[in-house]
Amino acid sequence: MSAKPAIVLVHGFWGGAAHWANVIVELNKRGYDRIHAVENPLTSLADDAERTRKMIRQVDGPVVLVGHSYGGAVITEAGDLPNVTALVYIAAFAPDAGESPGGITQEMPPAAVENIAPDSDGYLWIKQDKFHESFAQDVSADEALVMAVTQKAPIGSTFGDNVTAPAWRNKPVWYQVSTEDRMIHPDNERRMAARMNPRETVELDASHASLASRPGRVVDLIEAAANATTG
Questions:
Q1: Which of 24, 73, 83, 227 would give a disulfide with 93, using CB separation of 3.0 to 4.6 Å?
Q2: What is the predicted pLDDT for the residue at 3?
Q3: Total structural domains in the chain?
C-alpha cells in the first residue's frame, strides 16, 4: 500500500467524476496512486452522501476527501467517517447544520444564477450557450463545450436539502476560493471558509471550474492537507 493517503474526489452539480480529469492526472504525477472519483446521482443530498460514504468505506487507510461546488455539501454530510483525515473544499458549498446550498445562494446570488433553468421533469440545467461564460470562462471554448453538452443536471429539490451534522466541525479543513466564480459568489465562499477556521485558505484568480483551469494549484492544496494530516 502506498504511504500516501487515498484521495476521494466528489463532483458537484452540472458535472460528473470526469470533471476531475486534470486534477487526477496531476495527483498521479505526484505519486498518488490511490485516487477515487465518486459518481453521484445528484438526486438528493442524502443519496449523494450515501454514495460517497460507500466509496470511502471501500478504502483501506486514511482518506483526504475533496469536494467541488455542491460536492462541498456532500463531503460536509458524508465526511464524518473515522478514516477521513481532512476535508478540502474547491470553490464549494460548506453548509452548517440546517443550511442548504440553495439557501446559501439566495443570501448572495452569483452572477450566473439567471443562466440556470429547469426542464419539464424538474432537473436544473445551465443553458448550453451560457455554460462557458457562467461555469468555466477560463478554460478553452472546446473544453467548455464538452462540459456544457455532458453536464449532469441535478434534480432541483436537491438545492434545498439541508446538511444535518457538518463534518467540518470535527475534521481539519482546507478551502480554495475562486475569485472570478460566477456560480457561487466569491464572498459567499470566503464567508463559508472563514467560519470553518480552515488550516489554509487559498484564493485563485479562477472561474468556478478551478479544478479544470488550475489543477496544479488545486493539487497543491490537496497535498498540503494530505501532508498535514497523514505525514
A1: 73
A2: 86
A3: 1
Fill in the amino acid letter for 156: G
Q: What is the pLDDT of residues 5-33, one digit of tens each?
A: 999 999 999 999 999 999 999 999 999 99
DSSP-H helix ranges across 30-87: 45-57, 71-78
What predicted TM-score, i.e. pTM, was given to this entire model?
0.97
Predicted local confidence at residue 144, as pLDDT: 98
Type of residue numbered 58: Q
Strand order across the beta sheet in which 84-90 lies = 35-38, 6-10, 63-68, 84-90, 173-178, 200-204
Closest residue by Cα to residue 69 from 121, 112, 25? 112
Provide the β-strand partners of residue 86: 64
- Establish if 133 belongs to a structural domain: no
37 contacts 149 by C-beta, under 8 angstroms = no
Q: Could you tell me the sign of the dihedral formed by the alpha carbons of 174, 177, 182, 187, in that order?
A: positive
Going by pLDDT thresholds of 50, 70 and 90, the confidence category of residue 69 is very high
- The verdict on residue 27 lying in a domain is yes
Range of the domain at 61: 6-109+158-230
Which three cell numbers mark 11?
463532483
Give the up-direction half-sphere exposure of residue 23: CA atoms within 13 A in the CB hemisphere: 29
Sign of CA dihedral 165, 4, 56, 95: positive
Name 80's Cβ contacts closer than 8 Å, sequence gap at least 6. 165, 167, 170, 171
